[in-house]
Amino acid sequence: MEKRDKIVIGSRGSKLALIQANWAKSQLEEANKEIEFDIEKIKTTGDKITDSPLSKIGNIGLFTKELENALLDKKVDLVVHSAKDVPTEIPNGLVIGAVSKREDPHDVLISRDNVSLRDLPQKAKIGTSSLRRRSQILAFRSDLEIVDLRGNLDTRLKKLDFGELDAIVVARAGLLRFGLSEKASEIISYDIMLPAVGQGALCVEIRDTDHKVKEIISILNHHETMCEVKAERTLLAKLQGGCQIPIGAHAEVIFPVNLKLEAVVCSLDGTTIIRDSIGGKVDDFATMGQQLAHKLLGMGGAKILDEIRKGMQKTTLVNPFNTQPSRARTKKG
């Protein structure tokens, strides 16, 4: 391999995004001591709009589009995303080159009185920006009040400390990466709440013609997690769901060669839950994702998703920052 003087890693500027990008940077530096790696911080649409629910902004590429444009323009050589933020369709010319070993994909409850979801008082206020979390919480406890909550982890914890909320729900992977796992009052079981597609994993996106970078980042790839995330993403693509549609999924490789995939489609108020699972061989992850999605749609998921999309079309803000649409056509990935 010919020597490359510098490789630039694109990342959002949030604390969590930079922890993730710096992890990737350290791994790559250790394996490629002759190469200099730098991180370029890029602000995305989702970072700019902090005072509106994500579901009302639009759900395609909120935290990825500007990073992908920088990659296409060759301003950066690779970008590190939280896998749950990556749309199922990515621009032509780009490819997911690696998926990192997954952190625990569970959601966790952080409550002021250190109690579980089951033991929260009647009408307790829970903060979350996720429709997926909202729906599954209400399915479990319809008496709880869900408050829209955005911002970084510090901001969310402060609202809890100041008594504005009784609890918040966040991804355990984020707490682990911050070194704050002790903050969790409860690791919410999959029986109550399935995670977002890709939750806990990182996706490294590159230009599909950049074979040198593809080889360099191969050390970041974890084969089992790649299969799990691809199964979940295939299901999500078949359901035509975005990151702000209440769909949860969890795939798990059961060694040595089997894979279990479980998924849920929820109504926004949590009164209707369509949930099922499928098992098969690891190599059949794509087929399994399509089959389970088809099953969920036939069980009533199609009706739920159609109603949600119609409602979102009425409330979505139209390009509030006048951002330009992505120049590239998209492909499924």
From TrEMBL:
GO BP field: protoporphyrinogen IX biosynthetic process
Record field: catalytic activity: 4 porphobilinogen + H2O = hydroxymethylbilane + 4 NH4(+)
Main enzyme class: transferase
Species lineage: Bacteria, Pseudomonadati, Planctomycetota, Candidatus Brocadiia, Candidatus Brocadiales
Gene that this sequence comes from: hemC
Name of this chain's protein: Porphobilinogen deaminase
Pfam family name, one: Porphobil_deam
MF term (GO), any: hydroxymethylbilane synthase activity
UniProt domain Porphobilinogen deaminase C-terminal: residue ranges: 228-297
Highest taxon in the source lineage: Bacteria
Pathway: Porphyrin-containing compound metabolism; protoporphyrin-IX biosynthesis; coproporphyrinogen-III from 5-aminolevulinate: step 2/4
Cofactor note: Binds 1 dipyrromethane group covalently.
SUPFAM superfamilies: Periplasmic binding protein-like II, Porphobilinogen deaminase (hydroxymethylbilane synthase), C-terminal domain
